[in-house]
Structures are given as C-alpha cells and as structure tokens.
Design goal:
The protein is α/β, with parallel strands linked by helices. Helix content is 28%, strand content 19%. The protein has helices at residues 77-80, 84-93, 136-139, 142-151, 168-179, 206-209, 211-221, 237-249, 265-275; strands spanning 2-3, 6-7, 30-38, 43-51, 64-68, 101-104, 161-166, 186-190, 225-231, 255-259. The strands form two sheets. The protein has an eight-stranded mixed beta sheet, sandwiched between helices. α5 (168-179) packs across α7. The chain is globular, with a radius of gyration of 18 Å. The model has no long low-confidence stretch (mean pLDDT 93).
Length: 281
C-alpha cells in the first residue's frame, strides 16, 4: 500500500478490534471511483464512493458520510489504509451502523486525482502541496455535495449528512462544517490539525478569517454530534486542548474521545469504527 510516496505492506493481527478490518462472509458494499465537476475549482476531480450492500437493487435513499484524508493522502487513502469498506460492511452487517454512502474526496485541490489516475501522470506525491492552507478545499466543498446529491440516491437534509476527517482532513472538516453551518448534523474530528498555516500567504482566506462567526452560526443552528478524538501521544495533542478550550468558551457542545497512541492509521481506523455507529440515529 502507498502512504504519501512510500510503499509498504501491512498485516492484520487477530483481535476484537482488528475483526472490523477483515473481510468476513457478510453482504458487501461496492467501491467506485467517479469524476465530478467542480465549478469552484474549474476542474473535473476524482472521488472514491462506497455504497452499502443492496444499494444497486434498492430504491431506498441513504444518508451520506463525507470522509476526508490527511495531508499525505488522496482519494485512495481511506479506502486502502483506512479499510473503510471492510469497516462499513462489518458494522452494517452487525446492525451497529446504518447503511450509508461514504464519499472520500481528494483534499489536495492542486491535484485532480491520485498519482497515475489523471492527466498529470504518475507524479511523486508530496505532503505540502501548494493548496495546503489555501482554503480552496473548504470554500468549494459544496461542489462535492451537489454532485453526490444529483448523482446518487441520497437523503438531502441536514440530519442525513455527516462529515469527518483525519489530521488535515479534520481541519477541513471543522472549517467546512462551520462555513456551511446548516448542512451537517454530524461532525467528526480525528487527530485534527486546527489549521495548516502558509507562511507565504498574502491574505487570510475568508473561510478561515470568518471561522469563529461561522462556528457561532453552526452552534446556534444546532447539530446532533460534534465528535473529537485524539491520541495521548499525538504531536497535535496540545492543539486539541487549545481548540476544545475555544469551543468551551463559545459553549459549543462536543464529545471528546481520547485514545492511546499517536498520529497513526491504527487510531484513525479505530475512530471510524467508533464514529460510524453514532450516525443518523
């Protein structure tokens, strides 16, 4: 598997938690790669979409979880390293999670797709692409929602939309959900970076500059769950303390989950397996 530009092998050891990451004899959902038009970014971009078991033969409409990757990832990260399809298949089969679509974006707006999947060719991925900290992903996310709700059988109300992300994707999540304060009833921040600043920025993008006012609108509009998870050894641990202090001062209600370990996929898989069962109740 690939993480940033590194290739490596992984193995899953036996255990209760690891059972969610394995393929079991249960009904399976489908994973597709699709392209959407983003007027805000003036480009066609690639998504990975998980549809739950039975979606193709059903006429039912489903809720959606938008799941965002970290600074080293792309639209392939959650489905490969995150074991999203296996986690969702197993949770749904056990009746622990509602059947839902999971939409996994490419958060690097300077790339339309993962290496080898676009006209850019098999480029070497880097972490700090020019778009990091630009606000472009956050300010154009409505394009993703519009495409999903036009293309798939999904429910189109706040109570049926969730958004979550790890690290940079956690930063994207908190700004997107505040910038669209009447859009999501469920928000998940996994080892979130509060914001990835660019020292060369000439001005602060509006999605960042207006964040606290947007957050207050999000608070006043109400939501069902604002879920924050962080590892005790995570290098962003103090950032999470400072962020929660700000939420407390603004009386923004949240649930905090602290785990062992640090800024690793073992925690992010764990968080997804705990967050998904809380959705769309």
């Amino acid at each position: 598997m690939r993480d940033i530009a590194n290739l490596f092998s992984i193995f899953i050891v036996n255990g209760e938690q690891a059972s969610y990451y394995k393929v079991h004899d249960v009904p399976h959902g489908s994973v597709t790669r699709v392209w959407y038009d983003s007027p805000g970014l003036k480009s066609n971009r690639r998504l990975t979409v998980y549809t739950p078991p039975g979606y193709e033969s059903s006429k039912e409409s489903y809720p959606v979880l938008y799941l965002l990757h970290g600074v080293g990832g792309d639209e392939e990260a959650w489905i490969s390293l995150g074991r999203t399809a296996q986690i969702m298949d197993n949770l749904i089969a056990q009746g622990k999670a509602k059947p839902m679509l999971v939409v996994m974006t490419n958060g690097h707006t300077s790339n339309t797709a993962a290496p080898g999947e676009s006209s850019k060719g098999l480029y070497k991925p880097i972490m700090m692409t020019p778009d990091v900290g630009s606000g472009n992903m956050e300010s154009t996310f409505q394009d993703v929602i519009n495409f999903v709700e036009k293309t798939y059988r999904v429910k189109k109300e706040k109570a049926s939309r969730a958004i979550a992300g790890l690290s940079m994707g956690g930063s994207h999540t908190l700004f997107i959900s505040a910038n669209l304060p009447s859009t999501f009833d469920y928000v998940g921040l996994f080892s979130a970076a509060y914001r990835l600043n660019r020292p060369d920025a000439q001005e602060i993008p509006a999605v960042y500059a207006n964040y606290e006012k947007n957050l207050e609108k999000q608070r006043d509009n109400g939501y069902k769950l604002y879920w924050i998870a962080m590892g005790k050894a995570d290098f962003l641990y103090q950032t999470a303390i400072d962020f929660r202090k700000m939420l407390d001062e603004k009386k923004v209600k949240y649930v905090y989950r602290e785990s062992d370990g640090g800024h690793t996929w073992s925690n992010w898989r764990l968080y997804l397996s705990e967050f998904a069962p809380l959705l769309f109740k």
